[in-house]
Amino acid sequence: MKTKSLLLTAILSLLIVSGAWAQEKYEYAIVKIATLNEINFVTADNIESIKTQSSQIDKDVIKKVNELSNQGWEVYNTTASNSVFIIYYLRKKKN
Asked: Which of 33 and 28 is assigned the larger pLDDT?
């Protein structure tokens, strides 16, 4: 009986540990309109500022998000403030 309990405990422990390792790790970033003529792409390591014309800023934000999507980034959430400033939340699987 004791051997059976020990074996079940060992198997359960291995399942718990393997489940913790199976979690996917992500790198996170945002794309946002910083000013009426500037878009920011922000990661933990870098801030990239993109100058644009205010008349086409929405188009340029979507263009940047599409470009990042082609590089492996995934949009997983968005927020909007008064339908003027939109923030795109992105993530990319770490290798």
From this structure: 28
Report pTM: 0.71
Q: Over the stretch 45-69, which tens digit does the pLDDT of each residue have? A: 999 999 988 888 889 999 999 999 9
Q: How far apart are CA 31 and CA 40, in angstroms?
A: 6
Residue 18, domain member (yes or no): no
User: Is 65 inside a domain boundary?
Assistant: yes
**HEC states along the chain?**
CHHHHHHHHHHHHHHHHHHHHCCCCEEEEEEEEEECCEEEEEECCCEEEEECCHHHHHHHHHHHHHHHHHCCCEEEEEEEECCCEEEEEEEEECC
Contact 85, 32 (CB under 8 A): yes
